[in-house]
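Cross-check.
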Amino acid sequence: MRRRFVRVVSALGVNLLAVATISALPVQLASAQTAASTLGKSAQNLTHPGAGPASHGDTVNWVLDYDRTGPAGPSPATITDPIVGAGTTQSYVPGSLKAPPGWTPRWSTDGTTFQTTDPGAGTVAVRADNPATRPGGTSLDSPLLPPVQSAPVATGGDGYTPILHRTASGGVEAWNMYHHLGPAAPKLVCTDLITNTLCAGGPWPKPVNTTPGPFGAGNTGDIGSPSISQYVKDPNTGVIYYSAATATGVGVACLDLENRANCGFWPLSPVGPMFTIGGLSTTGGNIYGVGSSGHVVCLNMASHTPCAGQPYAPIVPANNNFAGAYYVGGTTLAGGKMFATSSPAGVTPVLGCFDPVTATACAGWATPKPIAPSGSYYTYNAFTAYDTTGNEVGACSTRVGGIPLSTCYTLTGAAMAAPSAFGSLPSGELVFGPEVVTTPNGHVRSYFGSWGATIGATTCHDWTTAAPCAGFPLPALHPGLGATRDYGYAYDEVTDCLIGLGDAGVLFSIDPAVGSSPCIHSGASAALNPATFYCDGGSGHVQGYRDARLENVTMANVNVAASTVDVTDTGGGTVATPGLAADGTVDLSGISVAAHPDITVSVRLVLNNGNDFTGPNRPTMVLSFDGDAPQVCFKTTVAAACTVTGVTNTATGTDATGALTSNTVDLAVAPGASCQPTVTVNKEICTANDAHNCIAGGSGPFAKQAPVGILGLLYARAYWRITITNAGPVGISGAQLLDGVEPSCVTAAGTFTLAAGASKQVYCSTSVVLALAPVTNTASARYTPTNSPAGTPPTTTASSSARACPLLCLLG
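Predicted model, tokenized:
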């Protein structure tokens, strides 16, 4: 695969919602002179933006601003945010925790033990920590990759070619998979190139499996690996695809290196027609490979479905070498076509061509082309040929057996001149597939690993000059490293170094310009997207880019004149190529944030020596921008229970300035329609002949109207009973009776509360000595639902009336 200097931004994203803050009570942010860092807490109602009190079921975004002061250098910080009333008054929204770049989010289901995976709605506390915060918090650290020294048995065994992976947090890893191993055997290894040790999360190696999910351990795999490993990287996801064989089928499987997980297997042929698949190549969004039967297999990368009509007709003869179990040969792309070699046992090895447009053999390639004389020859590779301007013009392969000479053909099948560099290799040398690099001077070069007659060597051909690479030994051995038995290399575009691996399991680096090892270069590449430091959905947080600077680097150890800096945008286009100043800084202030809201800064250092990368010293590139204090956010949903009248949140933290506590935000919750009490008033008059039955506790009876003559018997007084009932579902408070005719009824009632399902009776009377016409008395009640937010207006019930008849009701 050809590698070019293309930077692709992989910025962390956040869900930015344009919402209004309904309760924002942040503490005053500290000035640069203030000794202590500060935490400021606010809340946003995402369901009803701009509303006053929240409602039951609303989603609230809790926002925490962290303004870091204190020492100028990096220092650790931890922020912890307990979710008060988790599971009762409010519940965490899964996936909602957002932390700035450089911070690690964590979750807890017990408030004490925190984990790095989101457990979902059972979360009772969240946390974010950063081992290297800096004043202001608007910076991002990325470690500088040290010169990669040889790491004996770091890969654990016969690891074939390495796969480079730059993590989201700025780490640099080399992954490899042992080749020609059975399904159960563990075969995947990760090496941390920053520390030159095995990655965290061991033990390594790990098994690979068809079922998606985290890597397991031990002899629990169900995918076998091929003899000749060629990988395809999805440019959109960073997922790695590899050819895979199971007990029932052969196809393509994938690895999610960032998340340390298997991510699927897609069979393309049952076992029987073919037993394994040769190297993979990708073009037009599809992944192609050649099976041991010579058929071409195809998988669509986006849909993970077999291409229509695959497997396609053979383009090379069947090939089951190594006890009939492995494909011996490789694939390459040239001019949009896939070329494949095949090494049938005891037969001339050949090169075939497949045209993805027609899904058949290429024009001029109805019969595969020989790449060696008939006899005991075979090949491990297929590689692309370029003209002196870098155009793909054909395909080649190097024979194994005798002097490892190459044979090349044009895209249309005509013979063409082959690289001469292999003629300098000793007889019996095994040559494998190349890593193709466009070097800083614009030359297209292919670097081939080999061993067999040697204990490990690198051969370089420069297509731009159509000759062996100038200044590069032919071949380049690796004195001081012992047996490396090179299979192949991965090119690190940031440091301009080749990372090598081979049959001996030694991981090492090579300077692609002169072939020396280790490669005394360094560098870092990091994406800076200032918007990802904020999660409140607001605008105006970012003022501009500031700079990139090298820390823990002695500039006398750097060849500043030979070092370079690239700034690219999300599409890989060059934004700027600023210079590296003598003090190790790069000015980024001239780059517009509005025009380029996220950038990738790549610093490529040519070192005079590796003295800065010894002991505990950790050279670092720091990217900075000018902006507000960064934010940590998470969301909760307010419980639907009517008893919930508010939610609250307070955060704590620690950093180099000491213990931190934010302001407390109390967010009132107004009862919704389903949480309003149902209050009724029933006014009655006593119809008994004895007044003692009409007062409080009397037996009555009571009715809506007193019959004629009763009031005279009761000494010309009307006795009233008023019943206030709260049918629920919540209580009322501050309730008062309203009675415009008889103030004594209001006095008797007073101000009262009434729980859900409870009733209250009020007794009072009115003199009707001189009344001739009927007397009608009407009452109602005014109240507020219990625990309503401050300022909630009271509610008045429907009125209820009763009537007294002193003489004749007919007069009324």
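The longest strand covers residues 775-785. The radius of gyration is 39 Å. Passed to J.P. for a second look.
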